[in-house]
Amino acid sequence: MSQPQDISNLSQSFSNAVAISTSPVNNFSPGSPYGQSIYPGRHTKVLKPFSTGDIKILLLENVNTTAIEIFNKQGYQVEFLKTSLPEEELIEKIKDVHAIGIRSKTNLNKRILEHAKNLIVIGCFCIGTNQVDLEYAAKKGIAVFNSPFSNSRSVAELVIAEIITLARQLGDRSIEMHTGTWNKVSSKCWEIRGKTLGIIGYGHIGSQLSVLAEAFGMNVIYYDTLMIMALGTAKQVPTLEALLRQADFVTLHVPELPETKNMISTNEFNCMKDGSYLINASRGTVIDIPALVEARKSGKIAGAALDVYPNEPAKNGVGLFSDNLNSWTTDLTQLGNIILSPHIGGSTEEAQSAIGIEVGSAVSKYINEGSSVGAVNFPEVSLRSLTLDDNDRARVLYVHKNVPGVLKTVNEIFAEHNIEKQYSESRGEIAYLMADISNVSVSQLKELYDSLQQTPFHIVTRLLY
Ligand SMILES: NC(=O)c1ccc[n+]([C@@H]2O[C@H](COP(=O)([O-])OP(=O)(O)OC[C@H]3O[C@@H](n4cnc5c(N)ncnc54)[C@H](O)[C@@H]3O)[C@@H](O)[C@H]2O)c1
């Protein structure tokens, strides 16, 4: 499959070029950990850790039961807590464990990680990884996994709900009814069938939304800096302006980047159709909200739905969404047909369950097979699973400093054996080597392990056999 192309400079012959594009990929991979693979291969060999002993895993912050089931099936010793832990308690607990699962409230900073003598992997059962010192973790040879895409469908469904809610002024009617007002109107209320949805950012969420919107009879156009194959009969347009000029509903699904900051501001509102609608469930910085307030006041746009904001409260509570947090709050909340939700786009039971499976599987696969595919701070390396026929083989997992001369030293250590497969990848100051070597007896494992550990570049060495 061809790589995505940068289309920012493409000419008007754009529509002819779509054939070379690629579809968005689904990164979800349930993995095949040893013992109880989710999708076991018939001949997959169950690898045992030589160097780690029994795996202990600490799960904090009530991570989803789907993850606990995965870890229990592996035979790990699982300690599960519903809350996060105070720093000193966490330091005590982290000393022992090989893996830890957290959500957004547990801060794994350098001070805490310094005490994590056995830790090889961190699972963030959430989208973000800001709560972890990723660089320090990598230097200690600790791989970090998260789940960036498990809630794409949930966000896409919320946006569909918002499109209909805006088109029918449903939010305003509901608020009126709550205060005793009966206001049966049809003026400026629309069906969404036959209307044009403009999707900015056709990634995991944008492309899901595209399919759902077409099922409602909408025409879908999208703008993305990459050339991406359209799903259904959606059409990619070459510029943001082209999208804004055609769309009845504009929805943003881009990452937070310097180039997406305020990507919808006064000029862009001026390009939008009169009476169109704007939806943002991506990141709070992508819309210039004072410009949105002006566009709504003037009637240029007929409504907007926002799920994300430049500043968001750190916890739930009354009175927290105020001018103290964002200076324009009062101006925004006084406008009609503005739907505001508290960053709940991805907040569903299904998304939580999918996060548990995705991160649980990635963590298990790293522990059991060494695969670091999907790690956010670590070189991504994988070798295919060993089979039952591979009975005299050992898998070497060697995290080391990224300096010259490592492979020469390591291959000298491997010299007595046969290297069946070897794959090494670096990222910044660290590198990760996976090798399957044959002609290894169990009695030779200790010598092999000790030799690798004594190399000057060694960070973490593990052997599976
Ligand atoms: N509201 C929520 O609860 C919630 C939940 C999940 C994700 N999100 C946010 O939604 C956004 C999209 O998530 P995703 O999983 O679809 O991401 P993704 O990485 O799969 O897709 C993003 C797309 O935007 C495109 N893009 C990047 N810069 C662009 C630009 N300047 N102009 C046009 N297109 C551009 C990329 O090429 C990519 O195709 C992210 O900001 C994410 O943080 C919000």
TrEMBL record:
It catalyses: (2R)-3-phosphoglycerate + NAD(+) = 3-phosphooxypyruvate + NADH + H(+); (R)-2-hydroxyglutarate + NAD(+) = 2-oxoglutarate + NADH + H(+). Transmembrane segments: none annotated. One of its GO terms (molecular function) is 2-oxoglutarate reductase activity. Residues 395-465 form the ACT domain. The keyword DNA damage does not apply. It comes from Geotrichum candidum. Belongs to the D-isomer specific 2-hydroxyacid dehydrogenase family. Pfam families: 2-Hacid_dh, 2-Hacid_dh_C. Its EC number is 1.1.1.399, 1.1.1.95. This is 2-oxoglutarate reductase. Catalyzes the reversible oxidation of 3-phospho-D-glycerate to 3-phosphonooxypyruvate, the first step of the phosphorylated L-serine biosynthesis pathway. Also catalyzes the reversible oxidation of 2-hydroxyglutarate to 2-oxoglutarate. Keywords: Amino-acid biosynthesis, NAD, Oxidoreductase, Phosphoprotein, Serine biosynthesis. It is an enzyme of class 1 (oxidoreductase). Pathway: Amino-acid biosynthesis; L-serine biosynthesis; L-serine from 3-phospho-D-glycerate: step 1/3. NCBIfam families: PRK11790.1. GO terms for biological process: L-serine biosynthetic process. Gene3D superfamilies: 3.30.70.260, NAD(P)-binding Rossmann-like Domain.
